[in-house]
Design goal:
The chain is an alpha/beta fold. Helices cover 36% and strands 22% of the residues. The strands form 2 sheets. It has an 8-stranded mixed sheet, with helices on both faces. It has a two-stranded antiparallel ribbon with strand order 4-5.
Length: 302
């Protein structure tokens, strides 16, 4: 019989903070870098929450066991005659507090390269022992939508009854999975509610940060998890970003016509209540193109 490695040996934790969190039924947000992330929605949501919420490390994973350093090499700085610095990868669960002091958990860092099943078992074991109420993730996908209209969000869940109001539906499609997809799927099989919110990012901005989409998914997360999150600073970033887009667009004679066509399509579908349903081939082609155009993953620092 094959020997199964104990998932609990993958991480260490803060015992005092663990006891403080246990029994509070916190939501666990898992926002890992490394998969499709149009508009940097996943990455920027995690970083924003760490910027604006009080936080403390609860669990730290032994990332040396999970990372392929030859696939994603640390970035190092050589200065004149010595190595001055290097990136330090970390896979961490923080305990955060919302504006009302309500705790929730945030799992961030690079998506594991190996031992997915063992890492999922470790995360679900942590969730069970802490009494986590749900696991939640967010992401962004490139779509034919304009930046001048509210960002649409498609929800998914291990409990379909919790999903309503999606702006579009997908009958059935097969795509390469991410660690977060696997975690949500296995959470559902274990009886734990898993939810996700996917922002529709204008395809012409997929390679840039798009805080409007980050704001849209974060509001959905707050509603689902019963959290009061600081949003004022993010709203300022949205306004600044939209102004920058308009400034750059003014220098492109063809861009206004493209945006206008997308606005007309958006408004027509909104007024009719019709669903915009891409084919499986169109979705697959869009994902493949986006992956091919992606830059190397960003640095992950403690």
């Amino acid at each position: 019989m094959a020997r199964v490695l104990d998932p609990r040996l993958l991480y260490t934790f803060n015992p005092e903070l663990w006891e403080a969190v246990r029994g509070t039924q916190p939501a666990l947000l898992h926002l890992l870098d490394g998969y499709i992330d149009a508009g940097s929605v996943t990455h920027n949501t995690g970083h924003y929450l760490l910027e604006v919420c009080e936080h403390e490390v609860l669990v730290e994973f032994d990332h040396d066991q999970l990372h392929d350093y030859r696939s994603r090499r640390p970035q190092m700085v050589f200065d004149t005659n010595h190595w001055a610095s290097m990136t330090d990868y970390a896979l961490v669960i923080h305990r955060l507090l919302d504006l009302n002091g309500k705790p929730f958990l945030l799992f961030t860092g690079p998506e594991p390269d190996t031992q997915w099943n063992r890492t999922v078992a470790a995360v679900l074991g942590i969730a069970e022992r802490l009494g986590v109420s749900r696991v939640v993730t967010v992401s962004g996908v490139p779509m034919a939508v304009p930046h001048t209209r509210p960002s649409l969000v498609t929800a998914h869940s291990t409990d379909p009854k919790t999903v309503s109001g999606n702006p579009m539906w997908i009958d059935r499609v097969q795509l390469p999975g991410s660690f977060s997809h696997v975690l949500e799927y296995q959470a559902g099989r274990a009886g734990l509610l898993g939810q996700g919110f996917v922002a529709h990012v204008p395809h012409y901005l997929a390679q840039s940060a798009f805080p409007q989409a980050t704001e849209a998914v974060l509001r959905r997360v707050a509603e689902a998890a019963g959290l009061e999150l600081p949003m004022a600073e993010l709203a300022e970033r949205v306004s600044e970003n939209l102004a920058n887009i308009e400034s750059e667009a003014a220098q492109d004679a063809e861009f206004p016509a493209v945006v206008q066509a997308l606005e007309e399509q958006y408004d027509r579908l909104s007024s009719s209540g019709a669903a915009s349903v891409p084919s499986a081939e169109e979705i697959g082609a869009a994902v493949e193109q986006f992956l091919a155009e992606q830059d190397p993953p960003p640095d992950f620092r403690r």
